[in-house]
Write a structure and sequence with these properties.
This protein is α/β, with parallel strands linked by helices and 441 residues long. The protein is built from 13 helices and 17 strands. The chain is globular, with a radius of gyration of 21 Å.
């Protein structure tokens, strides 16, 4: 199966991503001459050519209930503003809805730039302000943002699209799942999947003439054991994550990251779920993207250091990773170490998918410990109720649950658990189902 995202991004050849950092550096993009020459106001129909022709045959590549939203950006030389170009495509038999538009972002919609408070009182205030900020993102006709919202409504109403693949190749860190359409969140009205270009040297696709991993829409069950590392040495609330795993799957998580990684090097069984609950750290440098303990360097691993581990069990393609750690779902451009391609983004999600994981759940920013463990519980509660659901569909369902609770009783507690739940996103192959062992006590 040919992958539309792979085709587009291979042809576009945009620029490389930047390290997960709390301070987002300006996007540096390729194709300046080509794209700037074709830049203009938002148009009602796609131009004949922007970079390369956008003419995918969606029926042969996607499920008919699926659409793609593809976002790229570059800095306008004259205004020095970031210009965002958005393409969308959805098709169903003889119907189709294409989107091409552009907009500039004069306001910062990044979570990390808006939610900087660490004490509870300031945090809830920052959350409330941020939710108000993004409420109008798709409803304001700022060089095309409203057109994106209209397109998303059309594909749901006319084409009955239920799944959206988001391929955001920018540094803006827009929380798309939190966007509102007709007073309903995008992450509750559609099953959302995030995808990035991931290159594997020993793989080659003749259809696209590249070694990018193709996005698969085939149904797939991830069956096998559950393995877990939980930093209970520093995170008191993480004991609740441990309790959830013990009660649901009757396993004993590791509390030592070195022992955990050592076990993974020797494991011979099939792993369905690798669960990590720990601190997560974000920086402008790849070497400072880390997980583990905060106060013990020996219990702390960088993203770079993980390259020294084989993770051979991923090669069977049976595994999902759930990283309940701050910043674990953020991506960046590798400007310093330069071990990644300059047009690709890197982070824990792309790292594990590159090694064969079917997908990864990670967070878009910092999550308060108290609410992180609540997300774990509601995720596995929903899984036990609907074991046949795909991983991204489970995330959609739990978003719906917390939104309903918040709307029924708008307390600060319900607002924070709702906001925190939306920070968990899924990168990977859409039709992936967890088939976890039944070890409930």
């Amino acid at each position: 199966m040919v992958n539309i995202i792979q085709q587009i991004t291979t042809n576009q050849n945009p620029q490389k991503p930047d390290v997960h950092s709390k301070e987002i550096s300006p996007e540096e993009l390729l194709q300046k001459q080509t794209l700037l020459a074709q830049a203009g106001k938002a148009t009602e129909s796609p131009p004949e050519k922007v970079g390369e022709p956008f003419t995918p045959n969606l029926e042969q590549q996607f499920n008919k209930d699926t659409a793609i939203l593809y976002i790229e950006s570059e800095q306008d030389i004259e205004s020095e503003e970031q210009i965002y170009r958005v393409r969308g495509y959805a098709a169903d038999n003889d119907k189709e809805e294409k989107l091409f538009t552009e907009f500039s972002l004069k306001c910062n919609f990044s979570l990390s730039e808006n939610i900087k408070s660490y004490n509870d009182e300031d945090y809830i205030s920052a959350v409330q302000d941020f939710l108000g900020l993004i409420k109008g993102f798709l409803n304001v006709n700022e060089r095309g943002r409203k057109r994106i919202g209209n397109w998303l409504i059309k594909i749901q109403e006319k084409l009955k699209v239920s799944t959206l693949v988001i391929n955001d190749r920018t540094d803006s860190e827009i929380p798309w799942e939190m966007m509102k359409l007709r007073n309903k969140y995008l992450g509750t009205s559609l099953v959302t999947i995030r995808w990035q270009d991931v290159e594997v040297l020993d793989y080659f696709d003749e259809n696209t003439n590249s070694n990018l991993i193709p996005l698969s829409f085939e149904s797939y069950n991830c069956s096998g054991d559950v393995v877990a590392y939980i930093n209970t040495n520093e995170l008191k609330e993480a004991e609740k994550d441990k309790e959830v795993l013990i009660n649901n799957f009757n396993i004993e998580p590791f509390d030592n990251i070195n022992n955990f990684l050592g076990h993974l090097e020797k494991v011979n069984s099939q792993i369905s779920l690798m669960f990590i609950s720990s601190h997560g750290f974000f920086s402008k440098e790849t070497s400072q993207i880390r997980l583990g303990e905060m106060n013990n360097k020996k219990q702390n691993k960088s993203l770079l250091s993980l390259n020294d581990y084989g993770f051979r069990f991923f090669q069977n393609g049976h595994s999902i990773v759930f990283m309940n750690a701050c910043h674990s779902g953020r991506l960046m451009k590798d400007k310093k170490e330069k071990i990644m391609r300059s047009d690709h983004r890197t982070g824990f999600a792309t790292f594990f998918i590159q090694r064969g994981a079917r997908g990864m759940i990670g967070t878009l920013d910092r999550v308060l410990e108290k609410y992180a463990v609540k997300v774990t519980k509601i995720f596995f509660d929903e899984y036990q109720r609907n074991r046949q659901l795909t991983v991204p569909a489970i995330l959609k369902n739990i978003r719906e649950e917390v939104v309903k609770n918040m709307e029924d009783d708008r307390t600060e507690e319900n607002e924070l658990i709702c906001f925190s739940t939306f920070m968990y996103v899924y990168y990977g192959h859409p039709m992936t189902v967890l088939d976890l062992p039944s070890g409930k006590k």
